[in-house]
UniProtKB/TrEMBL annotation:
Pfam families: Sdh_cyt. One of its GO terms (biological process) is tricarboxylic acid cycle. This is Succinate dehydrogenase cytochrome b subunit. GO terms for cellular component: membrane; mitochondrion. GO terms for molecular function: electron transfer activity; metal ion binding. The heme is bound between the two transmembrane subunits. Its main location: membrane. It comes from the Eukaryota. It comes from Trichoderma guizhouense.
Length: 160
């Protein structure tokens, strides 16, 4: 214990500095950047595996959902100033007057992104547990994700 208490806990590092001009300092930074890898290294990706995969569609559906919410809430907030009727009763009566096919298309256009984003979020929670990283499991999971999203979107649009 006496030996441990006698040891120094501060670090001593010999530091040497030298004066550099602004141009020389910039050249040092340029040379350091040349030795760094491009991150992420785009050569490792196979475009056929990542092009519009579930990851991209999760981002797209998230943007669609949040974008639609921002547009609606902004319209709801600005409607009294602009003389618009965006309250629930006006929207419900206007929606009821639409043809069945148009109603179904609107409801599915809102339901599909919601179900896709929700189910893919669950898939990523399963990934966080360390389950499902084999290539065959990923392919089956992607297929199940798309099928269940279309079924869930159809159920929300037409089944309720």
């Amino acid at each position: 214990m006496v030996l441990a208490s006698a040891m120094s806990t501060s670090q001593a590092r010999p530091v040497s500095t030298q004066k550099l001009s602004r141009e020389e300092g910039q050249q040092v930074l340029v040379n350091q950047r040349l030795n760094r890898p491009v991150s992420p290294n785009l050569g490792i990706y196979k475009i056929e595996q990542t092009w519009f995969g579930a990851s991209a569609w999760t981002r797209i559906t998230g943007c669609v959902l949040s974008g639609a919410a921002y547009v609606y809430f902004t319209a709801y907030l600005a409607s009294p100033l602009l003389g618009l009727h965006v309250e629930s009763a006006a929207l419900a009566s206007g929606f009821a007057a639409l043809p069945f096919v148009v109603k179904g298309a609107i409801k599915f256009a809102l339901a599909f992104p919601f179900t896709f984003h929700f189910i893919n979020g669950i898939k990523h929670l399963v990934y966080d547990l360390g389950i499902g990283f084999a290539k065959s499991q990923i392919k089956r999971g992607e297929a199940a994700l798309w099928i269940s999203s279309f079924i869930g979107g159809g159920y929300l649009a037409f089944g309720l």
